[in-house]
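Annotated sample (chain length 675).
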Amino acid sequence: MKQTNKPKKQSKSHAATYEGILDVTRSGMGYVMVENQEKDIFVRPQDFHHALHGDRVVVSVTRFNPRNGKMEGEITRVVERRQTEFIGRLEMNTDFAFFIPDRAKGAPDIYVPAAGFNGAKNGDRVVVRMTAWDIKSKSPNGEVVAVLNAADENDVAMKQILVDAGFILQFDDEALEEAARLPDMLPQAEISKRKDMREVLTFTIDPADAKDFDDAISFRTLKKGWYEIGVHIADVSYYVEPDTVLNESAYNRATSVYLPDRVLPMLPEHISNELCSLRPNEDKFTFSAVFEINTKGEVKSNWLGRTVIHSNHRYSYEQAQQIIESGEGTNAHEILVLNDLARKLRKERFKNGAINFSSQEVRFVLDKDGKPTGIVIKESKEAHQLIEEFMLLANRTVAEHVGKAKTGKQAIPFPYRVHDTPDEEKLLPFVDFAKKFGHRFDTKTPTGIASSFNNMLNAVQGKPEQHVLEQLGIRTMAKAAYTPENIGHYGLGFENYCHFTSPIRRYPDIMVHRILQDVLDGHPKADKKMGEKCLHCSARERAAMEAERSANKYKQVEFMEQFIGDEFEGVISGVATFGFWVETVQHKCEGLVSIQSLLDYDDFRLIETEYCLTGRRSGRTFRMGDKVFIKVVSADIGKRQLDYEWVIQPGSDGDRQERYIKMKPHQFKTGKKKR
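Output written by the structure step:
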């Protein structure tokens, strides 16, 4: 709900209203953030009216200052709760208890009647779900949904992260019962309605520890040098129907959440790991995009529709990569052809404006108790890129097909996956910075910017400035999101794009499947709530990413506790007025070097345009991308915070130290870990 005109009336009956997200500060004051509204709306705690931090609310403006545009208001309605579950302790009386939350911002105490104890005892650490909140009551009602093992700090910490991000830890009994009632056997009547591709060679390529295989590739050689390549996606929408408890549960979560030691799935495991998982040697229902492609990687035609498949083999990425590198193994010919086609699709994509940002995935090696014992850095190899290119092709093809359909003369409301062009305020300082390293940018057109990025990324490979330019380049990019307004996907270079290929773990993909089937049936519908659904899914995606970052940070701190007092080589990953962040080269663990710890060396100030801190006396700079040496001085697992100190290496006498201070980043040598 948006309003562009400034409110003029101050009486409650004529007050302007807005819809936005409530942000509660540490002081307890609130601000409602409204999309496309320059200033947030201030709300006092007594005017929250049961709204909590992160809730989507309707706020009525009660005061407006025309001189500075500042507004004050009161919340009149909670549209959507961000969080309904909380972690804390129970304080019991005879027939009721009060739940005291640990740390949720602005969360109230919750009244729990005896019927809601569910086996919990006085003083237990529990997860409580808020069930109702009468407008006249100071405290909401709730029930215990889980009793936590206080001795298992890791489990409590991971659940705390999920709950704080607004995710529900357990499925309702109704949802589990609904999932359990779904039949394991594929009905013959349904099979007869689908394209039967069970005789075509089909296989999956996934992470070694994956259980939910939601995509498969089929391969068949046609005449005259053409291939039929099928992209087959688990048909979740066949099992999860609209207006069911399962659908509501999936929509509320909107995404699976992947933490270092666990997955919080969007769907019950009976669906995600059994019914819909494209496991080898089992018949499965799928929604497919089937392409005819020649040896040049040119797509002649495509077919979209529901299918039944039979996966012949399951590969891990490592197994598929071994076949690509050695040319030997089960179905080696087919995998090598697919890889060759993927290379050509990828080359064409970058030629047409996609930006080639590389990425590394950091994973923790965990013991049986979830404690990190090591860190593994995984890079995207050709096996990953093979799957990626065919998934991108399917997503783009589906979006193009639906984009051509109409309801009357209107475009069909559809959850496009969009990515806007770079923000000029972020881009221009970066362009000036890149120029210092000899990289010129054409900023006249979006295509010119993308081409300039790719030229720079190719040129910096293996150079000292590679890390900083890659990281800063990524930060200039807009965030991808779901929206019915199709503005294209800038980073991929696609005019039409959606998410079709992961319905087990993303709710927008389920929406895409349903809309695509309506279009194929010739009866497209106009969903008036599509904009609201897209906002919700985008918000849940961001919450999942924040939870994943928090959990990774927790594991970083937990891992680095053993290295207090040790020294490591690192790379400066960020700068601020209060210090700079360093990511260790060996472990990829980031900590803060406080500016207070540098006062013995110089008085440092931030130069934003240079992305650096500079000493007033010595001229010594700490710039993003510089290699430095640090000592681990503290690891606060409660705050998920690592503190480092900059150390001078090598040498101990003042003369050598001074020389080192004046050295340039590329002159640094790798230091040894010091016990």
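Annotation: Confidence is low (pLDDT under 50) at residues 1-13, 651-675.
Annotation: The longest strand covers residues 283-294.
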